[in-house]
Design brief:
By secondary structure, this protein is α/β, with parallel strands linked by helices. It has nine helices and eleven strands. It has one domain: Alpha-Beta Complex (Spore Coat Polysaccharide Biosynthesis Protein SpsA, Chain A).
Length: about 250
């Protein structure tokens, strides 16, 4: 296989328990993620990696390829690694189980970048920020990139900093969307990297790759998502879908 997508679906979320099964327009959130990811043209397979029997049963009911993984995994990357380890595949896409508005073209763009450029190990997504509120929202992760669209840094703070007398019209802020692609080999390298002080400070796992000197390609998308971390986020997604916005 060239590309597989894995959706790590953790039932015991610390901030919002059971959120992957939260109802959105008559379907569990996980089903929305799966249905959108299934529309990707680049995936040879799509697997839901579960940590609880309830999630496994629900995924089976809506027809997903779902597997049970260890309950002891500390993060989604470890859960994905367990699923991918026995498979012959070139590229793995980590599709977050709490992104019910994910667009399939985001998946395709990351997969295509990794397949077409053999020098890349890891890729992700960014979108131009259009509101000042998002710039200053710590739940919206910002990213700055170099001229070749490789990540320089990710932060919950507004980056770049707007210095006094700087021309605000020339400043562009980008939101990082937590969709990741890796080569299979790099996935296991990444999994075993030490947790950096930057990661501990910002609570952003991708900083461990930058801290160790690895490059992350960042692909711009015109599409937006709403990551569901709180019940308030869930209501925003429901409102978007009721308006027919996706």
């Amino acid at each position: 296989m060239d590309v597989i997508g894995v959706i790590p679906a953790r039932y015991q979320s610390t901030r919002f328990a059971g959120k992957v099964l939260a109802d959105i327009a008559g379907k569990p959130m996980l089903q929305h993620v799966w249905e959108r990811a299934k529309r990707s043209r680049m995936l040879d397979d799509l697997i839901i990696a579960c940590d609880h029997e309830i999630v496994l049963e629900v995924a089976a009911r809506f027809g997903a390829h779902a597997v049970m993984t260890s309950k002891e995994h500390a993060c989604g990357t470890d859960r994905i690694s367990e699923v991918v380890n026995p498979l012959e595949v070139k590229v793995v896409i980590n599709i977050q189980g709490d992104e019910p508005l994910i667009h399939p073209m985001m998946i395709d763009s990351v997969a295509r970048a990794l397949l077409e450029d053999k020098t890349l190990n890891m890729a992700t997504i960014m979108r131009k920020i259009e509101t000042t509120k998002q710039v200053f929202d710590p739940n919206v992760v910002k990213v700055v990139v170099d001229k070749n669209n490789f990540a320089l840094y990710f932060s919950r703070a507004p980056i770049p900093y707007l210095a006094p007398n700087a021309d605000i019209e020339q400043v562009v802020y980008y939101k990082h969307i937590g969709l990741y692609g890796y080569t299979k080999d790099f996935l296991f390298t990444y999994k075993n990297l030490p947790v950096s002080n930057l990661e501990k400070t910002e609570k952003l796992e991708q900083l461990r790759a930058l801290a160790e000197g690895f490059k992350i390609k960042v692909i711009q998308t015109p599409f937006d998502t709403i990551g569901v971390d709180t019940p308030e986020d869930l209501e925003r997604v429901r409102e978007q879908l009721q308006k027919g916005i996706s």
